[in-house]
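ok so i was messing around last nite and threw this chain in just to see what happens. nothing serious, just curious
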Amino acid sequence: MAAAHTAFDGRALTIAALAAATAFGFALQVAAAPAWLRHALHRTHQTGEWQAAPPPVARYTIDEGGVFILDRSARYPLIKFDDSPEVWVLYPSRAPRGDIIYKNDMGEPMLRATKLGGITVFTPRRPGGSAAALDGASFPLRVPPLGPAALWQRLFQASVRCTRAAQHLIGIDAPDIGPASDGLVADAAQVTSEAMAELAARPDGKALLARVAKVAFVEGGGSNVTVHGAVVTITVAASQGVAGRPSSQRIMRAIGAR
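result:
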């Protein structure tokens, strides 16, 4: 009870401070406020005024169309677009003027956050970037655990999709996966099918997929993709969450896409 009371007091203090800053116009004083209060506030790009910082998991609307969820509650930020099932892991790096560039596991920029609160998103359809506006809080992006039956079903579905993309049978095998990794392997299998479906739509994709006959999932200390002959081996690390499996772009690159 004491811990809960302390947590409640902390939230109450934050709410009270935000209310006071808003009611009495203490915009200038905020800059000199304690770090905990400055962390709870940010200056908006449009008005330059202080307001509550965005929630750690938030939904954003892209100016040119589209929606994505940005989850900054985990060790590595995650992003998911509404028009794709894939969750991307983001790796932050410093940029000029105090901005932060968030890149995927291939080193490609996907997001830029300014110190003033502005968000720019980069996609294949928007290589030059498009502004995004906060739409509200959302739920965390997590990989749920699965039982053996559900995992087998997901692997079967992924095999069917990969087979259709390649126009020949591609088997998927995960013989030694433990219960802690079943959810991540299921997610990795879906991402693999996304990679092969995208490859199939490319001019040279069918020739690349013709070399693949099997996808094998194994556990290891980190995410990895290797190709030996006709077998694509994907290593997952359950302890790292979504960051413990490779992205579709990394899988495509390993198969031979450029």
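not much to say yet. The first helix runs from residue 2 to 24.
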